[in-house]
Design brief:
Strand order of the largest sheet: 1-10-9-4-5-6-2-3
Number of strands: 10
CATH class: Alpha Beta
Number of helices: 5
Order of helices and strands: HEEEEHEHEHEEEEH
Radius of gyration: 19 Å
Strand content: 25-35%
CATH topology: Glutaredoxin
CATH superfamily: Glutaredoxin
CATH architecture: 3-Layer(aba) Sandwich
Number of domains: 1
Shape: globular
Helix content: 25-40%
Largest sheet: 8 strands, mixed
Oligomer: single chain
Distance between the termini: 42 Å
């Protein structure tokens, strides 16, 4: 009996802790010691930082325009998330950071992101800044030769930031748009 009492005393504070913050469908990254900011170029030629998007939730994905499946799937899901957000859609900024600055020119990035939604913003940097930014966000990528050309092997997660610019949620590639939209709504309500 005494053991049950002690266990119930320990379980109560743990259950209370779990109720303190929002419950995300994605992985809660609140307080992560990385993914704090970047300084890169937008496809429209201006220098941007994550801090420039304060007041909006931000969904950030790293990829490349010649990606055959992962990147188009992630951006198609992001467009569906905007649609599911309805009146709140303008409060979500989707950012697509290229890991292939050798081929992904600003013009190509603009056309690529606009094909998914006109508000999506393509980002790029030189090879060194790309590597630095990817490392800051724990993104893996590697050039893989394919005959006379190459492809890119890369991480598939997306990150969601709250309107204060804090990394809050890691979205797995297989997450459905409805779950991501729910997580964004939670962040917009805070």
């Amino acid at each position: 009996m005494r053991r049950r009492h002690v266990l119930s005393l320990l379980a109560a504070p743990l259950a209370a802790c779990q109720r303190d913050g929002p419950r995300f469908h994605g992985i809660d990254m609140t307080g992560a010691p990385y993914g704090r900011d970047f300084e890169v170029m937008a496809a429209d030629g201006r220098k941007v930082r994550l801090a420039d998007f304060r007041g909006q939730a931000v969904l950030l994905f790293f990829g490349f325009t010649q990606c055959p499946d992962i990147c188009p799937t992630a951006l198609t899901r992001a467009a569906a998330v905007r649609e599911l957000l309805g009146d709140q859609a303008e409060r979500l900024q989707v950012l697509f950071m290229t890991i292939d600055p050798e081929r992904d020119t600003p013009e190509l990035l603009r056309a690529y992101t606009a094909a998914f939604h006109p508000s999506f913003l393509g980002l790029y940097a030189n090879a060194e800044r790309t590597a630095y930014t990817a490392a800051e966000f724990k993104i893996y990528y590697k050039k893989v030769p394919t005959g006379a050309s190459y492809t890119m092997d890369h991480s598939t997660q997306s990150y969601v930031f709250d309107p204060q610019g804090r990394l809050r949620v890691l979205i797995k590639h297989e997450a459905p748009a409805a779950d991501v939209a729910d997580d964004v709504r939670l962040l917009l309500a805070t």
